[in-house]
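Good day; I would like, with your permission, to put a structural problem before you. What I wish to show you is a protein chain and, alongside it, a tokenised description of its three-dimensional fold. Here, with my thanks, is the record as I have it:
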Amino acid sequence: MKITLFGATGGTGKQLVDQACAAGHQVTAVVRDPARLTRTDPNLTVVTADVMTPDSIAPHVAGADAVITAIGSPDLKPTTIQTDSTRSIIEAMRRQGTRRLLVVSNGGMATEGDGPVTRFLAKPILSRVLRNPWGDMRVMEEAVRASNLDWTIVRPPMLTDGPRTGTYRTAVDRNVRGGIRLSRANLADCILRHLNDPAALHVAIAAGN
């Protein structure tokens, strides 16, 4: 497949680059600073563009079989980075007629499927601490749902730098009960597994150990 990837220099993005290239996909990584992506691979093309400007990224989503965004906020300050970047990506895809979009969100905003301790104790505390990035992700998800694209929202729990095992659990439109952690490597694996899955269209897929 031809994949256009945003957020390729982050922890999850680098895992996506490694795994997608190893699987034989043709990956176009759209970045601001190419010096931060040092991998070389015949299946990888690195381009520099401003994700916030549809005109800048439109040529790089043209002809893609799937577009993935793993862009995230680096801190707890008020932010609209995921909302603004995703809206720009959606507009660029509309202009080019590109249909398949997968976005990385988080499972913290949702409570369906959670156990009582997580729902009534942990989540209220986390929602105050993470109110800015979670608020940004919530609006981002609304923009994705309102688009006319073939979208999938992927919602991981707390991310770690553990290995790729492929032994995580998934759930549709609800959290994985007890699945409070997931390695970035397994998150990338989950995203790539659902690229061509018809059951993953227009749903949120949660993953957790």
Remarks:
- The two ends are 28 Å apart (CA to CA).
